[in-house]
Structure of F-box domain-containing protein:
Amino acid sequence: MDREEIAKAVEVVVFRWCNTPGDVEDPPTKELTYTALGAVFSQLHRFPTLAHLDLNLCPDMYPEPLVVNGTGYVDLGRHPSAAGIVEFTLLQALLRGSSRLCLKSLTLANISGYPYEFYKSQGFVEVLSSIEHLHVSVHNGMYSIDGPRSEELSDWMWLVTVPANLLGPTQARLTSLTLMSDLPVGRSPRVDLSPLFFPMLRYLELGGFIFDHHRRTEDFIVRQGQTLTTLVLDSCSMYMSLGQDPIRPWRDVCDRFAETLGVLIDVQFHIREGWGLDNRKRTGEGLRLSTHLGLTTSNAAKHRLGHSAQMSISACPIELLALIVNRISDDKGLRVVRAVDRMFCALATPLIFQRVYVKNRLPSAQNLAALMEHDEVAQVVKTVVFHWCNDPERVEDTPTKESTYIALEIIFSHLHLFPALVNLELNLCPDICPQPLVVDDSGHVDLDRNPSEAVIVESTLLQALLRGTDRPHLKSLAITNLSGYPYKFSNSQDFVEVLSSVEHLHIGLNDALIIGPCAWKLAEWMWLVTLPDSLLGPTQARLMSLTLVSHHVPTSFSLLLDFSTLFFPVLHRIKLDRIALDHHRRIEDFIVAHGRTLRTLVLDSCPMRVSFEGGPPRPWHLVCNRFAETLEVLVDVQFHSRDEWYLDIDAGGTTGDLETRLLYLFGGLSWEYGPWEREHVELLDRIAIEHLLAKVEQRRLGEKTSRAGYAAM
């Protein structure tokens, strides 16, 4: 540069990143290197004939990613990244000074994906204004950017910086454009190049772009149709959903290109063997196109799912994303998760999939189906949770609903593909509107005339669970908002087998989901027969925890419930929610029968039924006194009410923040007490429950002391 005769002859300057282990510099030498590079690239104008600048930056920023802080700024002082410092130094120096370059060709290879402010500067616009050949490759891969907002900034690079700042300024001379990403972009993050037009563009190469039915990238290509002579699509895939044909197949795209690219004389479709800007080796099998399949990108060609399928987390349920962030605490793990936002192969560790979610929406079902197909992930899944989705903005049309039902049926009939699965939670529809279960005079359901999505999903999940010979060996089963319709399969031997291994059972019935002339009869049958005989009746020798919930008001059917014949030899915990007690003592007897094993008893909004005249036949103080005498190992008792009708009593030693509350059900209404001798009853109840709480607290403290003494031995 200092020798004018030589400097006048320089037409091309090439920067190449050096990663040779033997050439590693110590920190003082690195500082001198950065200073020297800054001086060189801020004075490139001293090469008067310079027309081509080729910057080949770091292809792999491990182990020094570009770290950004919580406000999105680069903190090179606290986290010095050689790759980041060199990139920043070269690009900043390029724009420094008043004498700028008149380049014909600019290559920015492996730029980090950080949207630097100087990309928006007038100086950068001036540098680009003379460019005829532009090559930009963005590094979104592993360890490129780290920090709280790294993913957001990386997305911003493609959403805004590339189209608006790198391509947006007037580039009337541009004849050749190459855009590459080391991981698929175009759909997530969305890249919209369709408004851009370069009047002299003859060569266009796109790498790692996802096409879809929105046609944004396709429209950009077609817009250059009058000048474009060469088109290269390198590892560009077409998006499609699992189990469905692509909405816009490649044949439609190719037909459009054939019609609109009037001067095209060279077209190339390739697939690279591996992802990453430093792995550009292409397969030698001629023209090939790939399909981006839901969560899966196949680089094995056409519409087949390849053996080395990689999965994108961008379409996963939001619960799954939150779970990933919460489960991974170390910085390296978080960096990996952020880096694989668009593609991963079982992530850094599959343990984050111990608990997976699915909703009654097709994308969610497809996500879980994709996870099920990957052995490395499937083998660690321990809990599957179904959540009902009522989002009005995500309502599916009828054909999509049918596809959703099929996808859910496939999943729940193949739960055995999760070999470690022990917990299943089905959170069904909590609301009667807008599609209740309609039954006719004979008690039959006509889903063709009155299609109820809630019941179709409920029936689909439960029947699929019982299908086939390979069933999950569940330890915990929770079914909330069960419609109350007594399905025949609930009496089957298959259902007995599913329940036989269960240790923790939660059943919530919602008889308000049924309407019609015989609705009350069906609900009654569910409470009086199906619940005790089918859901609880089969031998469940392992049952340790039982929760029964009425999702409606304390139902009068529960007054006739008879659990007195049921016995579970290792039952440790009982929770009853909105189940009424009465003087027949059937529920009370069921509780007392487990007095030698029961350690926790929770009665939430469980009223004592009384008649219209006189006092309660079975006041609460008699129940509490009996519990105090017979529940020999009870160490936790909780009586609560979600309603305004309760008796306030100091909770004493009970756990939790709720106050202890009791209530009576008087006729069809609940009251603190009735029109009988209220003060007398209240006094006796208060004394009895305080006695029970004191006895339970004494037992708990005794156990605590015993454990402390044993530990000290």
